[in-house]
Amino acid sequence: MFDLTSADLLDAFTRELRLCKLVPGEHVVVLAEPGSRGDYVAAFGAAKTCGAHVIAATVPGGSPAPMPSTHTGAGPGLTSVLEDRAAQALLKSADLVVDLTREGFIHAPVQQEILRGGTRIIFVCDAPDVLIRNLPKESDKDEVLKGVELLASARTMRVGSAAGTDLEVRLQGSKPEFQCGFADDPGRWDHWPSTMVLCWPEVSDGRIVLAPGDILLPFKEYVRDPVTLTVAGGHITDVSGGAEAHLLATFFEDADDAWARSLSHMGWGLMRTADWFATAMYGKGDLMGMDARAFAGNFLWSTGPHPVLGRESYAHLDIAMRGCTVSVDGADVVVSGRLAA
Ligand code: FE
Q1: What CATH code is carried by the domain that includes residue 36?
Q2: Model confidence over 280-313: pLDDT tens digits?
Q3: Would 131 be classed as within a structural domain?
Q4: Residues 217/273, Cβ–Cβ less than 8 Å
Q5: How much is the average pLDDT of 51-58?
Q6: What pLDDT does 1 receive?
Q7: pLDDT tens-digit readout, 106-160
Q8: Could you tell me if residue 188 is inside a domain?
Q9: Mean pLDDT of the chain
Q10: How far is it, in rounded angstroms, from Cα 110 to Cα 105?
Q11: Ion ligand 1 residues within 5 Å by Cβ
């Protein structure tokens, strides 16, 4: 029989590329590595459907990160691209790169270099039905931009929870950003699927208490025993609790990384189609975990790399929490884990 899985994705990829404002005559490079999903070759057909020129480029796999580099969100990039000026030149020459590598280049400086030339990049690596369920809408961008505006003019973000979280975040210089699931502006990187507001603060103080059911990424595991993390000046100074506290403390120790215990981006999700249980329902290799990261009304915070402060690090955790209240200069944006009206 025919293999129809990529045909099934053609419509979704075509809609996605149209959201990326792909127009006839533009140049698309579909970037993959040997381990990329075969059915995502639908991106190639979608680019043709949009009337674009398209090249499929497959480069060798392998990453400089000291952990299995598949769907972690650390995004250090593929060594084969980081070390190959010809590959970089091809990507820079494109109007749109569809990045189907298993890890992307999220935290790789070379990605910034490519974007500076005006190339837009859309990164795709979640399971097909996760992509389809969370296909973005054009209006998602307006919504996240409101959150960015709010953060940009504010001084303080506070995060609290019934579990005991009480964190104060200084927003000055925190470079608010968004993800909306499509890359439509020149020089724009985005991630399908995603709808979130985030910033890169330097200083935060207080306590983060993970509750059972919160999600630890890249491990793609749910917290079972509460974890208390003490935060001072933007760094984690103490971790206590049960099994997951021990796991996190061991990760920080093993990372042997100057920034492992330092906080990185933080913000909240707005993706209303996200499914908190996706993490439980898929194999780890099938999932990046954007359902958890962008879940509407979550509080997402992270550790390790911090491009605004020039901190390069491979020790990147993303931790997605339910049930938090997030306020920005006193205005609630998330109340007990639900988006404020
Ligand atoms: Fe992250």
Answers
A1: 3.40.50.2300
A2: 999 998 999 999 999 999 999 999 999 999 998 8
A3: no
A4: no
A5: 98
A6: 62
A7: 888 899 999 999 999 999 999 999 999 999 999 999 999 999 999 999 999 999 9
A8: yes
A9: 95
A10: 8
A11: 73, 302, 318
Instruction: Out of 77, 93, 125, pick the residue that ends a domain.
Output: 125
Q: Is 11 left (phi over 0), alpha (psi -120 to 50) or beta?
A: alpha
Q: What's the gap in Å between 242 CA and the centre of ligand 1?
A: 24
Residue 153 and residue 296 in one domain: yes
CA of 51 to the centre of ligand 1 (A): 34
The number of folded domains in the chain is 2
> 116 and 149: one domain?
no
Rounded to an integer, what distance in angstroms lies between the CA atom of residue 113 and that of residue 270? 29
pLDDT digits (tens, 9 = 90+) for 31-45: 999 999 999 989 999
Share of the chain above pLDDT 70, in %: 99
Cβ atoms within 10 Å, residue 86: 9
How many angstroms separate the alpha carbon of residue 2 from the centre of ligand 1? 38
**Could you tell me if 209 and 327 lie in one domain?**
yes
In this structure, the number of other CB atoms found within 10 A of the CB of residue 230 comes to 14
Three-state SS at 338: strand
Residue 69 has pLDDT above 70, yes or no: no
pTM of the complete model: 0.95
231 forms beta bridges with 206, 236
Residues 171 and 301 both lie in one domain:
yes
Say how many Å lie between the CA of residue 225 and the centre of ligand 1: 23
CA of 106 to the centre of ligand 1 (A): 8
* End position of a domain, from candidates 76, 97, 125: 125
Please check whether residues 161 and 279 belong to one and the same domain.
Answer: yes
Alpha carbon of 46 to ligand 1 centroid (Å): 28
Dihedral sign, Cα of residue 182, residue 5, residue 62, residue 131: positive
Q: What is the residue range of 111's domain? A: 5-125
Indicate whether 106 and 196 sit together in one domain: no
Regarding whether 114 and 160 lie in a shared domain, the answer is no
